[in-house]
Structure formats: C-alpha cells, structure tokens
Amino acid sequence: MMFDAVNRLSQHSKRAAALIAQRSLLHAKQVYRSERVATLEAHLLHHLYTLTTHEAFEFSGGLKFDFKHMAEQNWLTFINEVKSQNVTFDNAELPLIALCANRLLHPAEISLELLHELNETAPKLLELTLYNPDAWLQMPSTSLINLALSQPQALSQAFKFRLFSTLSSSTHVSEALQSNDFDIACGAFVNCYLTQNKAMETALFSAFSRFNEPEHKAKLLTIAGLIGEPKWHEIALAFCKVNPKFIEKVLNHFHKKSALQVVIKLLETASTLEEAERVWINLTQKPLRQIPQMQLVEASCNEPIMPGKATRGAPDDAIYGFQYVMQQPHTHIWQGVNYSSAHPKEALSLYAGLVTQRVIAKELPLNLGAWACWQSHDQYSWQKVVHASC
Questions:
Q1: Which candidate, 378, 330, 333, 332, places its Cα nearest to that of 354?
Q2: Which terminus of the chain is more exposed, N or C, with fewer CB under 10 A?
Q3: What is the pLDDT of residues 215-241, one digit of tens each?
Q4: Is the four-CA dihedral 63, 67, 70, 75 of positive or negative sign?
Q5: How many CB atoms lie within 10 A of CB 40?
C-alpha cells in the first residue's frame, strides 16, 4: 500500500510537470483557445493539490504551498507570510504561482502604498501581486507619479508600468510620453492606447527614434500594431528584416488586414520566412501551399538555404489569401476571425493569451485594461475580468 501511494504521487508529479510545460508553451505563443487552457489549468491544479497535500511539491525558490491553508487566506495575509519566508522567485514560475494564488486566495484591498513598499523590499513578490487584478484598482497619486518621474531608477519595471499605464492626468501622460526612461514611456503609451489618446501618435514616432535597443523598439511596434495606423507598416517591415527574432512578437499585434502585406514581403526572404509563416497562420489560420526551399526570390536568392527546412510557404499563395481576406467583412483579422477594431471582445471570446488580451483590453476599464496588457494571465482571472466588464 505504501508503494502504491508513492507511485501515485510520482504519477501526479510527472503529469503536473507535463502540464506546466504545456502551459508555458501556450503562454510563449501568446494566443490559444480559451477552453483548452481552462481545461489544462483545472487538471494542473488538481495534480498540484494532491502533491501539496502530501508535501511532495515545492517551487525552486523553496516556496511551499498548502492549498488548504491558502484557501483560508486573503491576499494581504499571503503577501505578509511569503515576505516573512524571504524566499526567492523563479521568473518562469511566477505565472504558475499566480495561477494558484488567484484561484485560492480571498480578495483583499491592495493599496499602492503596499505595492510601493514591495517595490523596495521584495520586487519579485510585487510582480506576483500584480498578477492579481485587484492590485490595479487604485489610481496613482500625484506625489507617487512625481516621485517616479524624478527618480525612475528607484522603481522596478513592473511598478513603473503599473503606475503609468493607469494614469488619469493628461499632463502626467504627456510628460511620461517624453521620458527617457523606457519603462515610464512604454506604460504611458499603453495608457494612450487604452484611452484612445491621439497625443501619442507623434510621440510614438519620437520614442521609436529615441530608444535604440531592439527590445524597446519591438515593444513600441506592438503598440503601433494595436493602434492600426498603416504608416507604421514600412517601419515594421524594415525593423523585422534586420531583427527577425522579433517578427512574431511584433507582427502578431498587427491585426489590420492591410498589414498582411508586410508578412507577405517577409515570406520572400530566407532569413525571415519561417517566422513570417507562423505570423501568417496566427493571423489568418490559412496554411500556405508548400514549395521547395530552394525556390527563393528577389534579394533572397543569394541567401543560404536553412538546414532542416526542405519546404517553405509560397508567397504567391499568401497573395491570393490576402485578396480573399480583404473581401471579407471588417477591417481586422486574428486567428482567422474577421472583427471590428471597435468591438473585438465578442468576436474573439474563444481565444486567450497575451495578444488577445491586449486587443480586448481597450474594451475594459482603464485599470483592468492595463492589467490585461501587462502579462499573460490565468484563464480563471481573465474570464472573471471580462465577464465583470460586460
């Protein structure tokens, strides 16, 4: 009997590990079917509950969860308890810990003062707390914003995003858009996207020139894609040609149908075609006819053939697909769904993931829209926020 119990725990552990890996892959894709991740997370929590009940599971930083104990706690008591343990957090495990916390803990008021304290004493615990949508309810005070603008180095990336993505003062938004601190400026641009603030259009071009890190430029391009201004298409194309590793991260946000022409041009170049094909599928859900890899065109004819990739998506097939898509109703497309940019929530209700969250975010209240734009969230919390905003 004892060995049966050990074997069962081993099976639970293996299954939990497999589900955690699957969930991480889904989050990395930034889009997935809602029901798929809901089922996955339900099964994962079941296995974790069994393992924690038998003290057979702990996170890499030494953090142990007692699910029964957590179910009796609220967020404040949990934060204080974790802080007292002085544990370290693995970045990759934060979404998983947040899944457990959001499902089990009772709500509690989380003030900006507490978040500011965590920023100074426990930055990773701050990030964990920000996975809770209730941590985004309080609007930033003028004194805290002035502190952030004058001493940005004293604040973590997550806390600056929390502050400036939820601003209500147009004066502070304008000042933040011009900041040389990227995290402050990025939060302010998200704020403008959510509030449809036209002041950002000129400022976004300025920021794209001002910040030179490819990672920063990629983040700004994701915002440009969400806005849907065609004048960003050539800029995105030029950036993606030079920085192919950012193609999916950037172009998955370009849902305006005319932006498919950018993807088609990237399909014509050996160094960008693989990533571009994945973006094409994400946007249209239309597989491309496969042709031999050596059939290269234009400038790509002198580029080496990528090893292990015998075929490639045909650009001419994408051109025909683009013509078909343009004949369908509405101006935007995501996962093969033609939708109106003004009202994406109902059309995309079957999907989740960070990109989907960001598209739907502008239909949510500002604070919850900012939460949705920040990170991929567990399906329970995401659906709770969306339904509460209906």
A1: 378
A2: N
A3: 999 999 999 999 999 999 999 999 999
A4: positive
A5: 17
What is d(CA 319, CA 114) in angstroms, rounded to the nearest whole number? 53
What is the Cα–Cα distance from 311 to 291, expressed in whole angstroms? 5
Rounded-to-integer distance, Cα 202 and Cα 178, Å: 11
Distances (CA, A) of 175 to 167, 171, 187, 203, 245: 11, 6, 12, 11, 32
- Is 95 strand, coil or helix? helix
Q: Residue 239 has what pLDDT?
A: 98
- Look up the pTM and report it: 0.92
- Rounded Cα–Cα distance for residues 272 and 250 (Å): 13
CA-to-CA distance for 214 and 210, rounded, in angstroms?
12
Burial of residue 238, with CB atoms counted within 10 A of its CB: 0-12 exposed, 13-18 middle, 19 or more buried? exposed
Please say whether the beta carbons of 10 and 325 come within 8 A.
Answer: no
Torsion of CA 218, 98, 19, 250, to 10 degrees: -10
271 sits in which H/E element: none
Whether 313 shows a pLDDT value over 60: the answer reads: yes
Q: Which residues pair with 334 in a beta bridge?
A: 337
Q: Which helix (H) or strand (E) holds 131?
A: none
Summarize pLDDT for 334-355 with one digit per residue, the tens.
999 999 998 999 999 999 999 9
Q: CA–CA separation, 211 vs 326, rounded Å?
A: 34
